[in-house]
Design brief:
This protein is α/β, with parallel strands linked by helices and 206 residues long. The chain has a single domain, classed as 3-Layer(aba) Sandwich (Rossmann fold), CATH 3.40.50. It is built from eight helices and five strands; from the N terminus they run βαβααβααβααβα.
């Protein structure tokens, strides 16, 4: 079997972490060699950048700085981990990737899409997911979930208006990439969502 790159996308509180853990367990039980990452993060350098991006004390960070930091963290992760694992024919699962940058920094953040997409191409070296699982949730519901989980990070603190823009942008991104991106209602039960995800993943595995 050749390499497979799977990404998870969705607004805050969509339940990505739960579904990633379930998918990882499913694949490992079947003896697949799987690398599971989060974007930003994954490497020592990328995790340090993540700390800066998520720190609620950094609310004055500009949109350009934010975008460039996300892309710097991704570039390190791609070169250090993702590319070598894909070249070795392994499965890579990543919590967020290029779609998040287009949605959060491009659409909702107001940076030009042509600029964002060019920077994403530079950061990833052209690597694209084979499958993107988009957990679709209304921002009000997602943010209510996050608030119930404790302290909010810098992105989560941007307010409902911003997250409504994120949701609208995800809908547009899905509409333009339906062959790759699969829309899954995040209000379904975790078991139902996992079952849908497994159907999509098994099609790739075959």
């Amino acid at each position: 079997m050749g390499s497979i790159f799977i990404t998870f996308e969705g607004g805050e509180g969509a339940g990505k972490s739960t579904q990633i853990a379930l998918l990882l367990k499913y694949l490992q039980k079947r003896d697949f060699d799987v690398l599971c990452l989060r974007d930003p993060g994954g490497t020592v350098i990328s995790e340090k950048i993540r700390d800066i991006l998520k720190d609620a004390d950094n609310m004055q960070m500009t949109q350009k700085t934010e975008a460039l930091l996300y892309l710097a963290a991704r570039s390190q992760m791609v070169d250090e981990l993702i590319r070598p694992h894909l070249e070795a024919g392994k499965i890579v699962i990543c919590d967020r990737f290029e779609d998040s940058t287009v949605v959060y920094q491009g659409h909702a953040g107001g940076i030009g899409l042509s600029e964002i997409k060019a920077l994403c191409e530079f950061a990833s070296g052209g690597i694209q997911p084979d499958l993107t699982l988009y957990l679709d949730i209304a921002p009000a519901i997602g943010m209510s979930r996050k608030k119930g989980q404790g302290d909010l990070d810098r992105t989560e603190l941007k307010g409902l208006e911003f997250h409504n823009k994120v949701h609208t942008a995800y809908s547009a991104q899905y509409a333009q990439n339906q062959e790759r991106i699969k829309n899954i209602p995040a209000t379904k039960s975790p078991e139902e969502i996992h079952s849908i995800i497994i159907e999509y993943v098994n099609k790739l595995l075959k």
